[in-house]
């Protein structure tokens, strides 16, 4: 690894851990519980999540706002959307999370020499519970819940907040994440080098934006490709 690097920061969801039950399954079960046909897929919620961050008090409020709008757009009443949102939260948040293969080894490896930070989009309560559930919370000197502690990624501010806490600078830090749009774009905007692990996605010939390094898995990370 380059001698000037003193901090390694990670994304959380689908980079280090994932829900035991896919969101698509949780949404399907939520609609079944409410007793209405499912008019939208989980991607509709995921792609619009960031649009509600600033105005929402917490993730439950965010989910209700988004599902309410999606319901109205699908020809349902807003209250039905709220009910589906509540059922989705019950199913989804009760499903638990698990570490992705190689996550614990990567954290243990880098914690020996580098200061570690976490920069994740999501509500602090839920994200910190994931860290505690998976047993990795102690590895991180700082946890920045973007969208709450700072603007959501890809805004560069959460990266700056994390690096200040780690007493590091962008030229001395690496960021590891699975998303081109929030992780790679955000890291680049903040001046960090980025490691992209596509999480099973088909890798385009020319990713946009282009990460500094592209790996197939977390296991490759410990070989220090930079």
UniProtKB/TrEMBL annotation:
Any one GO molecular function term: hydrolase activity
Keyword vocabulary terms for this entry: Hydrolase, Magnesium
Superkingdom of this protein's organism: Archaea
Annotated spans, Disordered: 199-226
Coiled coil: none
Cofactor names: Mg(2+)
Record has Magnesium as a keyword: yes
Family assignment from sequence similarity: Belongs to the HAD-like hydrolase superfamily.
Name this polypeptide is given: HAD family hydrolase
